[in-house]
Amino acid sequence: MLRLGKRIRLTSEERAKFKCITGQTTLPTTIDQHNWALGRTAEFYRLLAAQENSADAELLARIAEGELITAAPASEPDKR
C-alpha cells in the first residue's frame, strides 16, 4: 500500500483482498473510505453471527476488522 497522509493506493493483491472481503468494486482512495467499507462489512457479519449463532460469520467479521488501518504513517510528509 502506498500512503500519503490520509490518501492510499492499494497494490493489486490488496485490491483483490478488499474486493473479496467487502464485495465492493469501487476501491477506496482514502483511509476513511477503506475503514468505512471494512467497518460496515464487519458490522454485517457480526449481526449475522448474532442472528444465526454462526462462528463462520464471526470469523469473517474479525477478518474484516483485521484489515482496518489504525496506525499513523511512519513519518508525515515535509510541508515545505
Total number of beta strands: 2
C-alpha termini separation? 24 Å
User: Could you give a short account of the major beta sheet?
Assistant: 2 strands, antiparallel
The helix count comes to 3
Q: Which stretches of 5+ consecutive residues score pLDDT under 50?
A: none
Apparent shape: elongated
Main sheet: which strands, in order across?
Answer: 1-2
Radius of gyration: 14 Å
Order of helices and strands: EEHHH
Structurally, how many domains make up the residues? 1
User: How much helicity do the residues have?
Assistant: 55-70%
**Mean pLDDT across all residues, rounded?**
92
Class based on secondary structure composition and strand pairing: mainly alpha
**Beta-strand content bin:** 5-15%
Detail the topology: elements first, then pairings.
Blueprint: E1 2-4, E2 7-9, H1 12-22, H2 31-52, H3 55-66
Antiparallel strand pairs: 1-2
Helix pairs in contact: 2-3
